[in-house]
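# nightly structure sweep
# worker-07 picked up a monomer target from the shared queue
# config: single-sequence mode, recycle default, output format = structure tokens
# input follows
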Amino acid sequence: MSSPKISVQSTTTADRDLIFVVIERHRELSAHYEAALSVSAKLDEGPEFDAADQISCQRNHALGEQVNVLIRSRPTTIAGVIALTRYVGSLREWDLPDDDAWYRIFLEGLADAIDAIAMAERLGQNGD
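# output follows
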């Protein structure tokens, strides 16, 4: 089962905020890992299982690296903040980092991103 799709507000927003690329990459790696697991689940112990299990381990490692990118990424638009929040909220436990304190990193980065977006909007309104 792959993660639900996140609707993109517009192509322009997606072009301005790279968080949509980070989310999509995580989604792809999660699907690849899930596909590898489904193959190894159908096999009995032996060389084929070992090969499939090795592929699953490699894909799990790639997914683990990407989830760390995901939780440390900072959206640059409100649409990106919404998409990232909804996406992370939809993830299954095995899609998240092993570190129990990952949510602190995520929330601090999200708060910093919102603060930066608000500051940019205030500066834009003031004409500075």
